[in-house]
Write a structure and sequence with these properties.
The structure holds two protein chains of two kinds. Chain A has a single domain (30-55, 76-240), classed as Rossmann fold (3-Layer(aba) Sandwich), CATH 3.40.50.300. In chain A, 37% of the residues lie in helices and 26% in strands. Chain A is built from nine helices and ten strands. Chain A has helices at residues 44-51, 73-79, 95-105, 110-123, 139-151, 169-184, 196-201, 219-225, 231-240; strands at residues 4-15, 18-29, 33-38, 59-64, 67-68, 80-83, 157-161, 188-192, 204-209, 212-217. In chain A, helix 3 (95-105) crosses helix 4. Chain B folds into two domains: 2-40 and 169-364, no CATH class; 47-146, abc type-2 transporter like fold (3-Layer(aba) Sandwich). Chain B has helices at 2-17, 19-39, 58-69, 86-90, 104-110, 125-146, 170-201, 203-208, 214-244, 252-276, 280-297, 310-316, 320-334, 338-364; strands spanning 47-53, 73-74, 96-100, 117-120. In chain B, helix 3 links the parallel strand 1 and strand 2 (73-74). Chain B is elongated, with a radius of gyration of 28 Å. The chains are: A alpha/beta, B mainly alpha. Chains A and B meet through helix 2, strand 6 and helix 3 of A and helix 1 and helix 8 of B.
Chain lengths: 249, 368
């Protein structure tokens, strides 16, 4: 159990008749960068929200950091960091005030917050931006600040929901370097993205379509298996020809 | 609790750094106090009544003078055309026209029956009722004074003493009720806006991935608004005292206690609204319409509930303002204590408890 960061079995979430997530199964190992791909509305965000304890599943089993997603949501919350595509900062607070606030929300004491803020601002190069209102920061810096917020309490698993949307390529590259460093330190990273170049950075990826996982594996192996030119072609073909593809388990 | 304190502190930052909402929270109550205290005036004064005197005797002129000496009536700016007195009503130059036919003076001197004509503009029914009442009193006064002293007719009159609002000023009637309306609107509005704002920025979701209990988030967020609402209440009461000289007969502490309960009910309405809508704009409209109309119409603030059709009376029972209007008028104007207000107080507590529970449930849910 210790080296399994995320275990999901037959997990479903229905909204009325709509099956947003329809019986998915997957495991993510500790320290792995797991890419969670799919078109808009495929069920990626719904899955992440269930794993983070924001949404109750309709059916199926799941554990995060060894804790059951139904009964131990509070323990899960202490072990994970979450960053959404909105970056979720208070625009009328400065970077430091955001960090202080979220630090307190995670139950860190004053000294821990000060030390972690110091570490993170250095690591993320935020020194010049941390005392400005977060609404005045360029998108790339807002994204780093949001990452800083999700790392304050030193989580074991990081859930990133489209963390690079709207961010320019230079910042995206640097962002992924940071993710690599974190993974090497043993942090598991569960990330959704629309950028195929980013998907190639992942250890393994899954491709989701209409609530189901249609393919799962190492990026280059998948490209080879389907004899696709690259990951992007593979993704487009898989989604477009979903009915003709008989995906092996 | 540390988390709760931090959430409350952050909420204060939001309030202080957003001058617009702070302005709404402070300026709106004051503006409304002015509006209701000055502009909306149900006091009957200086109604323009024209006298068309065909009699032209000493007596007819005495009667007209009597009329205008009272504070209720005043003369029209332009004299009325004798041939078509009604024209003055049509043009709204007068609210009523008294017509003194020839023979009035003679009738008074001879103590005969005589009938005066009165044309009243019925398009404002409150005013026309007042005109009829006041004018007949003045005429009765006048005729009584014309009686020779040796003639004794039994004369019975009612000696009325008005308690609690001796001058029957409508500001005394309105302003305490206004506190109820303002507290309800401001509390529901600000709470629903602050929660939906966090939905818009995604920070509410971010906060929920942290190990913070929903009730801690909720309490931390609404605590500053309880203070703000109470500040508003005090602001209106001070204005009431300074501008309108409205007395405060009862216990301030008792009012504060009930005020807290009432504000909690109002905040719950705001939380409920924010659980149903996604954006600040919709929340603002929903909060204003869902609190303003019932609180003004169904609380007894202006209109008496017992005169309403049954279904509306039933509806009024779930309007928190109905109880608070009664309570605050009782405390401020009559000096009523807990012993008298206990029924209304308990109803308010029950309503608040139900609203709070439902709101907390709605906020807590993971099903959304």
């Amino acid at each position: 159990m210790n080296d399994r960061a995320v275990v999901v079995e037959d997990l479903s979430r229905h909204f009325g008749r709509f099956r947003a997530v329809d019986g998915i199964s997957l495991t993510v190992d500790r320290g792995e960068i797991f890419g969670f791909l799919g078109a808009n509305g495929a069920g990626k965000t719904t899955t992440i929200r269930m794993l983070c304890g924001l949404l109750a599943p309709t059916a199926g089993k799941g554990s995060v950091a060894g804790f059951d997603i139904y009964r131990q949501a509070e323990s899960i919350k202490k072990s994970i960091g979450y960053m959404s595509q909105k970056f979720s900062l208070y625009p009328d607070l400065t970077g430091r005030e955001n960090l202080n606030f979220y630090g307190a929300a995670y139950g860190l004491d004053r000294k821990q917050i000060r030390v972690r803020t110091q570490q993170l601002t250095e690591r993320l190069n935020l020194q010049d931006f941390v005392d400005r209102l977060s609404s005045s920061l360029p998108v790339g810096w807002r994204q780093r600040l949001a990452l800083g917020v999700s790392l304050l309490h030193e989580p074991k698993i990081l859930f990133l929901d489209e963390p690079t949307s709207g961010v320019d390529p230079v910042f995206r590259r640097k962002f992924w370097q940071l993710l690599y460093e974190l993974a090497e330190e043993g942090v598991t990273i569960f990330v959704t993205t629309h950028y195929m170049d980013e998907a190639e950075y992942c250890g393994r990826i899954s491709i989701m379509h209409q609530g189901k996982i249609v393919e799962l594996g190492r990026p280059f192996e998948l490209v080879e298996r389907y004899r696709a030119a690259n990951l992007e072609d593979l993704f487009v073909d898989l989604i477009r020809n979903r009915d003709n593809v008989n995906a092996p388990a | 609790m540390r988390q709760l304190r931090f959430i409350a502190k952050k909420e204060f930052y939001h309030i202080l750094r957003d001058p617009r909402s702070l302005a709404i929270a402070i300026a709106m109550p004051i503006l409304m106090t002015f509006l209701y205290g000055y502009a909306i005036n149900l006091d009957i004064e200086n109604i323009v009544v024209a006298v068309v005197d065909f009699d032209r005797t000493l007596e007819s002129r005495q009667l007209a003078d009597r009329l205008y000496q009272s504070t209720y009536f005043s003369r029209p700016e332009r004299s009325v055309v004798f041939e078509d007195p009604e024209a003055a009503l049509r043009r709204s130059q007068a609210a009523a026209i008294m017509i003194i036919r020839p023979g009035f003076g003679e009738a008074v001197r001879g103590r005969e029956r005589f009938s005066l004509g009165m044309l009243v503009d019925g398009s404002d029914n409150t005013l026309s009722a007042a005109i009829q009442h006041y004018s007949s009193v003045i005429v009765a006064d006048y005729t009584r004074d014309q009686m020779p002293l040796n003639l004794t007719v039994p004369f019975i009159e009612i000696s009325t003493q008005v308690l609690y609002n001796p001058d029957l000023k409508s500001s005394h009637f309105f302003v305490p009720g206004l506190v109820a309306i303002i507290l309800m609107m401001i509390s529901a509005l600000l709470t629903s806006i602050t929660i939906t704002r966090e939905k818009e920025t995604g920070t509410l979701e971010q906060l929920r991935t942290a190990p913070v209990k929903p009730w801690v988030i909720l309490s931390g967020k609404i605590a500053p608004y309880i203070l703000l609402a109470l500040l508003d209440g005090i602001l209106v009461l001070v204005a009431a005292e300074l501008l309108f000289g409205i007395p405060f007969a009862g216990s301030e502490l008792l009012l504060l206690g009930f005020g807290l309960i009432y504000v909690s009910a109002a905040l719950s309405v705001g939380i409920l609204i924010s659980s149903l809508v996604k954006t600040q704009q919709v929340a603002m409209i929903a909060a204003l319409t869902s609190t303003m109309l019932p609180s003004v119409m169904l609380s007894g603030f202006i209109f008496a509930i017992r005169n309403m059709p049954r279904p509306l009376q039933g509806l009024a029972h779930i309007v928190p303002a109905k109880y608070f209007v009664t309570i605050i008028r009782g405390i401020m104007l009559k000096g009523a204590g807990l012993d008298i207000l206990v029924i209304h107080g308990l109803s308010l507590v029950a309503l608040m408890a139900v609203l709070m529970t439902v709101a907390a449930r709605k906020f807590d849910t993971r099903a959304g």
